[in-house]
Amino acid sequence: MVTTAARKRVEQHRWTVLLPVLGLIALGVCGLVLLGLGTSRIGLLPILVGALAALLPVLAVIGAYLWIDRWEPEPAKILLLAFLWGACGATITSLVFNQTAHVLGQLIDGGDGSTFAAVIGAPITEEAAKAAFIVVLFLRRRHEFDGVVDGVVYAGVTAAGFAFTENIWYFARVFSDSGFGDLGSGVIALFILRGVLSPFAHPLFTSMFGIGIGIAAVTGSRKLQVVAPVLGYLGAAGLHSLWNFSTTVGTGSTFINLYFLIMVPIFAGMVLMVVWQRRREQRIVAGQLPAMAANKWIASSEVTLLASLQGRSRWRRTVKRKVGDEAAKAVAGYQVAATELAFLRHRMANGTAGHDAEERHTKLLAALVAARQAAIDAPGALKAAGGVRRS
After folding, report:
1. Mean pLDDT in the chain?
2. How far apart are CA 123 and CA 104, in angstroms?
3. Three-state SS at 182
4. Given 39, 285, 354, 358, which is the most exposed site by the fewest CB atoms within 10 A?
């Protein structure tokens, strides 16, 4: 006889599998609709040129966020879903609401409504559309957020997807009107502006909201859990509005002033904050490892190696050189499992881990044991640790 609890677990598992599939199908449909709109208005060749031109900056942006996320890499499937939501779901949602903002702008100022749509409508709707994925992820899988860095990574990858689709449209339209052009016009000039000078514009805007969500994930204050994301969203929409104002209403000097006096310092501040947060994450992990070794969950000889990114990287390289790729992958999985458990134990100590902390601790501990066993089963993977130079 099937118990109510067992039936509930089966139902939860069914929805856990079904929802991502339905989401991917929906995003695929959105992508096809966007492709159809683009090709019908501009043509297939400009869209292809736009896609190639947009590919280079998005690869650089995604690479930067993956580099940021080295302590505890987020699940690849979720990052892919974040990118697809930004590229397809958020884009088509924004397209619908931006048209509404355009009409509203016509009613307000009696003109064509483009200024209102660009400066007011687009920042509000686009940042809300991008933030929607992060909010849903936070509500359903809060344990994926260990702090500000995770919020920034999810926000940045989502925004990178949005910027990718937007760039395809801009590059395609310019190619249709002016061809490849030169440094002053055409695809080349636009690539310098959007692909070289401002590839991180959209990710920078949305990262403001990511910071707010990251703060909400680690704070024990109910008030701050609400206020931080709201302020993050207002910061994202505000920066976006300033950017659009400088490119649509302001003159060339307005854009230059905004770029160097506001955007560049904020970007530099974001970099410094991420570096500081990564050092904080290192201190958290290093602080939890001795207790984990005392409990015999990890070996005492591995504490130093697990306590720094450099030590982990040297360990993987040594194993790869001496044993092979599969052993190196097993060690990498072991390192990630140890990090996830360390972060959870830190949140439990601070009282911010949530009501299901003990259950997740049991699961993560089992995952750590399994990951270490996989590394042990890879011949020489853990023995190779003895040959790694400690930092």
Report:
1. 85
2. 15
3. strand
4. 358
Classify residue 227 by burial, with Cβ atoms within 10 Å: 0-12, 13-18, 19+: middle
Q: Where on the phi/psi map is residue 110: left (φ > 0), alpha (ψ -120 to 50), or beta? A: left
State whether residue 185 is helix, strand or coil.
Answer: strand
Alpha helices of 249-356 — where are they, by DSSP H?
252-258, 264-294, 303-306, 309-322, 325-350
Q: Which contacts of 360-364 are long-range, i.e. CB under 8 A and separated by 24 or more positions?
A: 360/143, 364/337, 364/340
Q: What is the pLDDT of residues 331-374, one digit of tens each?
A: 888 999 999 999 999 989 888 887 888 989 999 999 998 888 88
The per-residue pLDDT for range 24-43, each reduced to its tens digit, is 677 777 777 777 877 878 88
> pTM of this prediction?
0.86
Q: Is the pLDDT of residue 21 over 80?
A: no
DSSP conformation class of 391: -
Q: Which structure tokens are listed for 137?
A: 């992820």
| Alpha-carbon dihedral angle through residues 116, 117, 118, 122, given to the nearest 10 degrees | 130
Per-residue burial over 43-60, b if 16 or more Cβ lie within 10 Å, else e, is: eeebbebbbebbeebbee
The sign of the dihedral angle between the CA atoms of 153, 66, 80, 198 is: positive
Residues 290-302 as b or e (16 or more Cβ within 10 Å = b)? eebbeeebbeeeb
- In whole angstroms, give the CA distance from residue 368 to residue 297: 8
Residue partners of 55: CB distance under 8 A and separation at least 6 = 164
**Cβ pair 188, 182 in contact under 8 A:** yes
- Measured in whole angstroms, the distance separating CA 209 from the mean position of its chain's CA atoms is 11
Those residues with Cβ within 8 angstroms of residue 49's Cβ, 6 or more apart along the chain or in another chain: 171, 172, 175, 187
Of 259, 150, 255, the C-alpha closest to 209 is 150
CA distance 71 to 323: 23
